[in-house]
Specification:
The complex is a heterodimer.
Chain A (H helix, E strand, L loop, with lengths): L7 H9 L5 H19 L2 E4 L1 H16 L11 E5 L26 H8 L3 E6 L33 H8 L5 E5 L6 H7 L2 E4 L20 E5 L2 H11 L17 H7 L6 E5 L9 H16 L3 E5 L7 H16 L20 H12 L2 H13 L6 H24 L2 E5 L15 H5 L6 H6 L2 E9 L6 E8 L4 H19 L11
Parallel strand pairs in A: 2-3, 2-4, 7-8, 7-9
Antiparallel strand pairs in A: 1-3, 4-6, 5-6, 5-10, 9-11, 10-11
Chain B lengths: L8 H7 E12 L38 H13 L3 E2 L6 E4 L9 E4 L6 E10 L2 E14 L3 E5 L11 E5 L6 E7 L9 H19 L11 E11 L9 E6 L2 H20 L7 E6 L4 E7 L9 E2 L10 H9 L5 H12 L3 H9 L3 H9 L4 H19 L10 H12 L5 H12 L5 H8 L7 H14 L1 H8 L6 H11 L6 H11 L5
Parallel strand pairs in B: 11-12
Antiparallel strand pairs in B: 1-9, 1-10, 2-5, 3-4, 3-14, 5-6, 6-9, 7-8, 10-11, 12-13
The chains are: A alpha/beta, B alpha+beta.
GO molecular function, one term (chain B): ATP binding
Family (chain B): Belongs to the GatB/GatE family. GatB subfamily.
Catalytic activity (chain B): L-aspartyl-tRNA(Asn) + L-glutamine + ATP + H2O = L-asparaginyl-tRNA(Asn) + L-glutamate + ADP + phosphate + 2 H(+); L-glutamyl-tRNA(Gln) + L-glutamine + ATP + H2O = L-glutaminyl-tRNA(Gln) + L-glutamate + ADP + phosphate + H(+)
């Protein structure tokens, strides 16, 4: 098996045992990127020399006898919203084209320290606003399962890179489902940790109260190893939780669901859900039952109001977070010809630098926060948010985890929803409640839909700081299904 | 600048009654900024105290400065406020180049401290100023508009921004409307500013250097016709940067508004700019085109939830507040209300206290600071505290006078020398040769010379007109260049002339 098909854990062990060098591992992935990324367009930035330089440094650290973690020498691709001192960071926007940050995000810094080697920065919907990566200012990313389909979004570059064996691991951010949905539609594992469990410092903000960094991997253990490597309290992020990281690696190893109480969310299913998605979902629930879990149906009535609440809260915060892109200190500057005022330059720059979806959300958010509308929109949405948190709380009195399909449908064709924002927003129907309540959820592959042969994801939701439960259930599902399939789901994907 | 018609103050007050409101911004003296670790020291080269957070680089996040929160709570307690058990920061959204995030982290409907008061004394009366709220926010950067006539952004050729100030913790203290001040409105406004500044100093939370902008006032004024109970439309004069200007801006705004109202005009709710040089205000932006700040709770920061027991301990540990301290010192020093008020107005209480602490009798300490030194400060146009002399040095001069080594006249010369930078009082005495002449031989020689030169006066004394000895004493003092002990010279003169009193 070639290096690119190995798991992150295997690569880490090979490097640690001196069987391969970090440079060799990096080179194998850089070769793969060179071969397939012209079709996939997962990466916005690849810099061979910088990557190999990092790999050489890891080899040198190992040679010097430094005790490196399990992922030292393993390559990783970062969603291009995490700042990196040695690579540009654009958030998928023209307004930050060529921008080089002077500091590392906490996530990128911690992973650098753990010896992971950065392959490059991955494509995304501009400022993480979207569910298909079509909103990138740098062209859409394609789904390795079917190059005419979307890889999900907003972290679609990161999901596609891992699904296309360009990287064994990648980072993403999940504001309304931007890790779980792309993971589901590309047949990989994607985890949204508990809000505050992973630091947002250096993550270019979309919606501060929702944004959550998380891992992508091709298997549950790799995701857990990455999760553990960048998580934990960060004094640079006020909303970071000062508590031990849930024992996710242990849970991924354990994978025992005997006696676990699993609740099926009643509100997620029925109209608007693809038959093949529901079929795989129900089979997986039966599988879990056969493994000893106790399955019950649980009603969370407020979940149906999550989508509209989200589309008030997230744009409201975004309208303020994106105000800093004003041409004054960094990034694009338009119209500064010596005759125009600062205000005019700001306006021209923002008009030229932001794409249509970003503008739509800034306008939506600005409106929702306006004097006279605040209570009816933003205020009301916050109340809904409280109701959703209460529904979760009540549910977790009855069960240990909740499950649902990760997305109502499999990957949709590029262009199909590009002109229909509402249809696009529905892709996050099942994932949004978790963001609003701040708890943890994972998406794990559970098969292919009969009608299109595309991947389906199972979403497992756990209480705040119950991240380990997500991994436990996901590991159980992965173990049982891979036994049936004779390998990972990706082994069924067409070769690129 | 337009010249506006003003109504003389007395006439304005005959016809109208003012209502005041004051908003005060105080930069806290914390070591680091409000939401990042950058230093707060004044006067560094532009844009050197900056980092990803206070420059609002993509991805940077604020973390709240615990010392600033503590200082704000102490200010609230000193102003008799209630302290919120739970409150949040809020974002105030507006675009301006000196505000890196294009929103200011402030507090909106959940201030940290609310509903307090501060008592101030004016004309021997105590006036209670109600405090609406005290909240914590961050300062903006500083814009300099180059070119153009006004120094403001409109009409400037270009503007430059220094972000060193961006993110310095700023406490905003807002009074409730202050009615009933009547003709004392300007004085009350100033007394409030003075008292507030002393509270800040007493707490040690800010250096309150108004000339560096670490304390600045927005002054709200409205007028209503006498007999009316319906408040008029107010204007807000921004960034009034000295206590004197607080007083002048209130007076000037009363005179301006009165002229407009008396002429049948109406006052527009607007912000106005105060001009130090003329004491007048000019119109700024109108509130009618005011921005919608779209306040919402700051999602990047966790709420502030000060522990009740901790707040109680802060309250118990508050230092003696200025008004209590003044009462205590007045008793200790045994001075009149009038003298105490004069010292307070001259900002001399702390100096006198320190001089007394250095060993001087209170009466002497007060005499020098409020007399000779006040005169010198006035001549130089600087506050007393900026004179180049220390309370310890004053105390030393007092001791020399008490010990007979100096008289008052010589002491004044010593002070002059110290103020000129000639060294310590002892060094000045030595260098200028200012010791009182106690040497009887030297004094006798001077007296003999004076008697020889003033034979007529000497005869008058001999013939019984003892009062004439004054001229001879004057001669001795002149001849000794003030160093003679005048009392002893008089005794010796009378002795020599064979006259006794």
């Amino acid at each position: 098996m070639s290096l690119i098909h190995k798991s992150a854990a295997e690569l880490g062990a090979l490097v640690a045992g001196g069987e391969v060098s970090a440079v060799e591992v990096a080179q194998a992935h850089l070769d793969r990127i060179a071969a397939v990324d012209p079709q996939v367009n997962a990466f916005l930035h690849v810099d061979v020399e910088t990557t190999l330089g990092q790999a050489r440094a890891v080899d040198a650290r190992r040679a010097a006898g430094e005790d490196l973690g399990p992922l030292a020498g393993v390559p990783i691709a970062h969603k291009d919203v995490f700042t990196t001192v040695d690579m540009p960071t654009t958030a998928g926007s023209k307004i930050l084209e060529g921008y080089r940050p002077p500091y590392d995000a906490t996530v990128t810094r911690r992973l650098r320290e753990a010896g992971l080697v950065i392959l490059g920065k991955t494509n995304l919907d501009e400022f993480a606003m979207g569910s298909s990566t079509e909103n990138s200012a740098y062209g859409p990313t394609r789904n390795p399962w079917d190059l005419n389909r979307v890889p999900g979004g907003s972290s679609g570059g990161s999901s596609a890179a891992v699904a296309a064996y360009e990287a064994p691991l990648s980072t993403g951010t999940d504001t309304g489902g931007s890790i779980r949905q792309p993971a589901a539609v590309t047949g990989i594992v994607g985890m949204k940790p508990t809000y505050g469990g992973s630091s947002r410092y250096g993550l270019i903000a979309f919606a501060s109260s929702l944004d959550t960094p998380g891992p992508f991997a091709r298997n549950v253990m790799d995701a857990a190893l990455l999760h553990e490597a960048f998580s934990g309290h960060d004094a640079m992020d006020s909303t970071s939780i000062d508590a031990p990281v849930p024992s996710v690696v242990e849970a991924a190893r354990n994978g025992d669901v005997a006696g676990l109480r699993i609740g099926v969310v009643k509100e997620f299913g029925g109209d608007g859900y693809q038959a093949g998605v529901l079929a795989r979902f129900h089979e997986t629930v039966e599988l879990l039952e056969s493994l000893g879990a106790k399955v019950v149906e649980v009603s969370c009535p407020s979940f149906t109001t999550a989508l509209p609440a989200y589309y008030l809260i997230a744009p409201s915060e975004a309208s303020s977070n994106l105000a800093r892109f004003d041409a004054m200190r960094y990034g694009l500057r338009v119209g500064d010809d010596g005759t125009r005022s600062a205000e005019e330059v700001m306006a021209l720059t923002r008009a030229a630098g932001f794409g249509p979806e970003v503008k739509r959300r800034i306008i939506l958010g600005t409106y929702a926060l306006s004097s006279g509308y605040y209570d009816a929109y933003y205020g009301q949405a916050q109340k809904v948010r409280t109701l959703i948190a209460r529904d979760f709380e009540a549910a977790f009195h009855q069960v240990d985890v909740l499950v649902s399909p990760t997305t109502p449908t499999t990957a949709f064709p590029i262009g199909e929803r590009a002109d229909d924002p509402m249809a696009m927003y529905l892709a996050d129907l099942c994932t949004i409640p978790t963001n609003l309540a701040g708890n943890a959820a994972i998406s794990v592959p559970c098969g292919l839909a009969d009608e299109d042969g595309l991947p389906v994801g199972l979403q497992v939701m756990a209480p705040v700081l119950g991240d380990d439960r997500c991994y436990r259930v996901a590991a159980a599902v992965e173990r049982a299904l891979e036994g049936r399939w004779g390998g990972g789901l990706l082994s069924k994907a067409p070769a690129l | 600048m337009s010249t506006e018609t003003l109504m003389p103050y007395d006439e304005a007050l005959e016809r109208f009654e003012p209502v005041l409101g004051l908003e005060t911004h105080v930069e806290l003296g914390t070591a680091s900024k409000m939401f990042c670790g950058c230093p707060t020291t004044f006067g560094a080269p532009p844009n050197t105290h900056v980092c990803p957070v206070c420059l609002a680089l993509p991805g940077a996040l604020p973390t709240a400065n615990a010392a600033a929160i503590e200082s704000t709570i102490r200010i609230g307690l000193a102003l008799n406020c209630s302290i919120a058990e739970w409150c949040r920061f809020a974002r105030k959204n507006y675009f301006y180049p000196d505000m890196p995030k294009n929103y200011q982290i402030s507090q909106y409907d959940e201030p940290l401290c609310s509903d307090g008061y501060l008592d101030v004394e004016v004309d021997g009366k105590t006036v209670r100023i109600e405090i609406e709220r005290v909240h914590l926010e961050e300062d903006t950067g500083k814009s300099t508009h180059v070119g153009g006539a006004t120094g403001r952004i409109h009409g400037a050729d270009y503007s430059i921004v220094d972000y060193n100030r961006a993110g310095i913790p700023l406490v905003e203290i807002v009074t409730k409307p202050i009615p009933g001040t009547d003709r004392l409105a300007p004085e009350i406004a100033r007394a409030y500013g003075t008292e507030l500044r002393e509270v800040m100093r007493g707490l040690g939370v800010s250096d309150v250097r108004m000339e560096e902008g670490s304390m600045r006032f927005d002054v709200n004024v409205s007028l209503m016709p006498r007999g009316s109970s319906e408040w008029g439309t107010r204007t807000e004069t921004k960034n009034v940067n000295s206590l004197r200007s607080v007083e002048r801006s209130v007076r000037g705004e009363i005179e301006r508004q009165a002229a407009i109202l008396a002429g049948g005009g109406r006052i527009f709710q607007e912000t106005r700019h105060f001009h130090e040089n003329t004491g007048t205000t000019t119109s700024g932006r109108s509130k009618e085109e005011a921005q919608d700040y779209r306040y919402f709770p700051e999602p990047d920061l966790v709420p502030i939830a000060p522990d009740t027991a901790w707040v109680a301990s802060l309250k118990a540990a508050l230092p003696e507040l200025p008004s209590a301290r003044r009462k205590r010192l007045q008793q200790e020093w045994g001075v009149s209300d009038l003298d105490m008020a004069a010292m307070h107005n001259a900002d001399a209480i702390g100096l006198v206290e320190a001089t007394v602490a250095a060993g001087a009798p209170p009466a002497d300490a007060r005499k020098w600071w409020m007399g000779e030194l006040a005169r010198r400060a006035n001549e130089a146009g600087v506050p007393l505290s900026e004179l180049l002399i220390t309370p310890d040095q004053i105390a030393r001069v007092c001791a020399m006078v008490a010990g007979g080594a100096l008289n008052d006249k010589l002491a004044r010369q010593v002070l002059e020398g110290v103020l000129n930078g000639e060294g310590s009082p002892d060094e000045v005495v030595a260098a200028r040769g200012l010791q009182i002449v106690n040497d009887e031989g030297e004094l006798t020689a001077i007296i003999d010379q004076v008697l020889a030169d003033n034979a007529a006066a000497a005869d008058k004394v001999r013939s019984g007109k003892i009062a004439a000895v004054g001229a001879l004493v004057g001669g001795v003092m002149k001849a000794s260049r003030g160093k003679a002990d005048a009392g002893r010279a008089r005794e010796l003169l009378l002795e020599k002339l064979g006259v006794s009193e």
